Amino acid sequence: MHTFSKILATAALLAFQTLEAGAQSSTESQNTSTASTELEGDQFNEAKAANNPLVRVFTLKGADTTTVSMQFSFVPFVGTNGTNSGNVINDVSFNFLGGYSAGTRAFEMAGLFNINRGDMTGVQLAGLFNQVGGKVDGVQLAGLFNSNLHTVRGVQLAGLTNFTTGTVDGVQLAGLANFSPKSVKGVQISGLANFSGKDLEGSQIAGLANFTAHDVRGSQVGSFNYARKVDGFQLGIINYADSMSGVPVGLISFVRSGYQTVEISANEVLPMNLALRTGKREFYNILFAGIRPELNEQPTWAFGYGVGTSPKLGRNVFLNIEASSEQLSKGRVEALNLVNRLYVGADVQLSKKLAVFAGPTLNLRVFDDSFAGHPELFTYANPQIRNENIYPEDISSQWWWGFRAGFRIF
Fold first, then answer.
1. SS3 at position 18
2. Percentage of residues of the chain with pLDDT beyond 90
3. Alpha carbons 380 and 124: distance in angstroms, whole number
4. Are 95 and 114 in contact (CB under 8 A)?
């Protein structure tokens, strides 16, 4: 175990060198700029090359980068390329535990890890991780993670995470998360989260969250989806976008430039109802609650959820088609007593911030008939119960025609 720990420590040190070289590049480029005022011709070109961060990444002091068709190694510096491993670009590379090279041009495989100081073209396979300091053009497959300090064009597959500091043009598939601080063109799929620091053209699919800092042309599917502008759709429990040309579908969808209203209404069961609509007129979510005060008794109240659509009929007139379900109770919620509604009505905008609406409802009540404490349905209206059915497991249902009317504040 002590030997294995040393191997992993060496791998971590080598992987860090690519990061360290990038951090030093800014200071060294300033030194080159100062030196350029004192050097001319060949002297200036040599000095500039010596301070080029790419040159420093690919070469070790006193050595040139070379290319070999094939190499074998046990661990870094213990193999056919010897201590010059960091200066060699391999066409094909086989590493028993881990490998370290200036780059790969066709194929690389390791039991534990692969570390390339420069570009990787082709296929790279590792039991634990792949670290590339340059571009990836091909396929990376690792048991834990793939890390790349430049662009990716191709496929990254990892048991845990895929990480790149450049753009992605292809597919990232990970058990936990995919990360790119720049644009993604293709697909990100993960068990937990996907992140794109700029634009997304394609799809993000995650078990928990998808985040795109700028624009999405395509789709986001996850429990939580976030984007600035969406040209496509979002599907999740919670969706957020500043603007959207498509439709968000979820339990709660908020489009900043979309459709948000606060509604105050009455129906045949409850005289006072408050609802919040959010989403787009093409498809929106409804959260609502209502109450009916009772003299010398606990109030009758309800809470529920619904969805709807509101196509435009005229200049200031919209059609509302909504389906909702609410639990009706007196005091505590003790037994099933659902009132399910289908509403079709007209919405007339009186001004930019105010609208009135009204329309009929078709109501289906499903309740536990073994419970004697259900509130009375109607106290100030008297609609006719059309039908009542009894089912096994103490469940009954009844339906009637009703109404809903009120006003909305935008």
1. helix
2. 75
3. 74
4. yes
